[in-house]
Amino acid sequence: MGSLPLDASSLRPLDPEAFSGESRAVVNFLAEYYRDVDKYPVRAAELEPGLLRKVLPEAAPENGAPLEDVLEDVRREILPGLTHWQSPSFFAYFPMNASTAGFAGEMLSAGLNVVPFVWAASPAAAELECVVVDWMGKLLGLPQSLLFSGGGGGVLQGSTCEAVVCTLAAARDRALARLGHENIMRLVVYASDQTHVTFQKGARLVGIPPSNFRVIQTSAASGYGLTADAVRAAVDRDVARGLVPLYLCATVGTTGLGAVDPVRELGEEARRRGMWLHVDAAYAGSAAICPEFQDHLDGVELADSVSMNPHKWFLTNMDCCCLWVASPRALTSALSTDPEYLRNVGTGGGGTEEPAAVDYKDWQIPLSHRFRAIKLWVVLRRYGAVGLRAHIRQHVTAAKWFERAVTVDERFEVVVPRKFSLVCFRLWARFPEDDAVDDLNRELLAAVNESGQAFMTHFVVDGKFVIRLAVGGAMTEMKHVMDVWELLQGKAEEVLRRHQI
Fold it and tell me: Which residue positions does N6-(pyridoxal phosphate)lysine occur at (predicted)?
């Protein structure tokens, strides 16, 4: 990592000429990386903790170094230790999309580096956010009541985790305003056993005791969706004990299986008991821009809040989470601060023809706020609804192909019917005990991931270890899905041969 030190006296952190040259160097570096990303092992070959500490100095350098030296260190020391999320053979977790438009928007966001946490701090940035969340809501088929144009509104959070904490806080304060703050220990949150664990974390963060979080069991009979009957039974038990139902989560596209909860039925149950209904569509919400998937959001007009992540499957670089609320006042009253130095000057809102300014500091956990709106706006402008629908549909088509391939191979089985672009399957052999089948699948998944040719993750449902293939990478095409199926077949043959099956 040796290099000639830079002259500190000549350091100009934002010199336009240096900015232009060095930015081009980074873009060229990334272009080379994307050209070759499929040549890297998808998952880092070495997983031993502490490897990077062995090659990097123990302290920060005293002198600066030329950018070319820094980039060479990235190439040599950093890239080999990454899991390459943008590899076309990355099928783990859910996708974390990137695109040229997303990167261009990210560059504009980082380059302009404005902070629209209050309207006056950057009016056009705050107003662009209002525009793009309404655009997104209309694309998903959300009701007018969740849009700024209909009295609701939206914000671009960093992640679903942040959105969950904000809506839980809003639900909590709405309930305690009626009950009194001393009754917080009576509040109960409901979700299914397929709901993302972030809701349990969020409930704890807003003061709901873990003993008041209800994880309601689902089953194959409902496609692992949460049923209104199960919620009703759990709520009735709690009400009989003097507890207060607070918040119900309905998920459209669960992490493990892609399951879909019946939004309308759950919404009606939430209304009956005065609960806040949140619809979590972090992954599958992107698919709702296609008319053929919008029925999964049937009943969303009953929701108090809805969230989805464009950074998952919508070609928008991390981080970007859309959160819509039916009552902005419920959200902002739980999150607002109003010190003198943050009060707006010259904002509108005095009459019906002049819209009120939006201070996004009151819609989120942190005070500061990145200019995420320009990134999502560039993606929407660059690709349009037609291009984005094509992106979603090509992955769904590839997942359908994979599901059919698994179905016709007698060595494998599809564990649950495919949802969206997620296929859950396992290697199956006629063993008398499920544990033996689970061990085979653990061995198969490890063999595939250790090959470096693909990366997948697993889930456990009804005690069964299953392998997840999530199609959705920006660079993933049908040929990559066909390649991973060929890889799976070859590794399965090796595993079965070792066990003499």
Answer: 312
Residue whose C-alpha is closest to residue 75's, from 3, 26, 24, 19:
26
User: What phi, psi does 12 have (nearest 5°)?
Assistant: -125, 100
**Both tokens assigned to 25:** 């160097």
Determine the CATH number of domain 15-84: 1.20.1340.10
Give the span between the Cα atoms of 203 and 189, in whole angstroms: 7
Distance CA 184, CA 188 (A): 9
Euclidean distance between CA atoms 77 and 98, whole angstroms: 23
Q: H or E segment at 481?
A: helix 478-498
Alpha-helical runs (H) found in 57-99: 67-73
Model pLDDT for residues 393-440, shown as the tens digit of each residue: 999 999 999 999 999 999 999 999 999 999 999 998 666 566 789 999
Angle at 301 between CA 297 and CA 304, to 5 degrees: 105
What is the pTM for the complete model shown?
Answer: 0.92
* Mean pLDDT confidence for 122-138: 95
Reported as a single tens digit per residue, the pLDDT across 133-153 is 999 999 999 999 999 999 999
What stretch of H or E contains 395?
Answer: helix 372-408
What's the rounded Cα separation, in Å, for the pair 413 and 424? 9
Task: Name the CATH architecture for the domain at 383-498.
Answer: Alpha-Beta Complex (3.90)
Query: Do 207 and 186 meet the contact criterion of CB atoms below 8 Å apart?
Result: no
3-class DSSP state for residue 307? strand
In 3D, which of 238, 232, 201, 231 has the Cα closest to residue 216? 231
Average pLDDT over residues 354-382: 90
Q: Angle 478-498/434-450 helices, nearest 10 degrees?
A: 130
Pairing of strands 187-192, 213-216: parallel
The pairing of strands 464-470 and 457-461 is: antiparallel
The pair of structure tokens assigned to 380 is: 């929407």
Six-digit token string for 399:
């997942």
Q: How far apart are the first and last CA of the chain?
A: 52
Q: Does domain 114-370 have CATH number 3.30.1780.10?
A: no
Does the pLDDT value for residue 157 go beyond 80? yes
Q: 218-273, pLDDT tens digit by residue? A: 999 999 999 999 999 999 999 999 999 999 999 999 999 999 999 999 999 999 99
Residue 49: pLDDT over 60: yes
**Backbone φ and ψ of 460, nearest 5°:** -120, 125
Domain ranges of the chain: 15-84, 114-370, 383-498
